[in-house]
Amino acid sequence: MDPLLFAAFTSGYILLFIWAIFTVKNSGPVSAAFLLPVILGLIYDNGILAAGHLIGAGSTLKLLNYARFWIHALFTPLLVLYSWHTLKQADIDWAKTGKLKWAASLLTAGLIVLELITEVFSLVLKEKWEYGALSYSNAEAQSGPPIMVLIVSAVLLAASIVFWRKQGWVWFFAGGRLDDYRKRHRFSH
Hints:
Layout: H1 2-27, H2 32-55, H3 59-75, H4 78-89, H5 98-120, E1 125-130, E2 133-138, H6 147-167, H7 171-184
């Protein structure tokens, strides 16, 4: 059952990626450009989860799953820069300051380093079958909440509320809440 669900997510993210490419191409450098690597990461992540049972257990699938953790660590924090750039595009004065640009850049870099140190560098993968999907997950249980994901989610939430209030456009806020729900109800890394 879940391989079909992950295949559907993969297809949806491919369509979203194509739309984002056209958005960036037609509008110049916009906040959507920060989303391209994140969307590519989601295509890869869901594609591997969808195809795991077809690839089969072994070193190939293990290596492909190992890459999922690297992609998550390197690309997910880019959503902080996306949030900052979206506020800047919404013509919010304090978002246009150099200080906020540096803060967003440093936070993004810090979250990447944090995720690499706390998750990726110590990663030990084990085979995992769940609801018909085969993947490799971290054999060592996390000692606490996923700090990087919580911080990125908090930044997205704050930016979406400010954007909603300034632009009257609720979809950034609603989309972020739907993505948070999806992340909580899928395979854990």
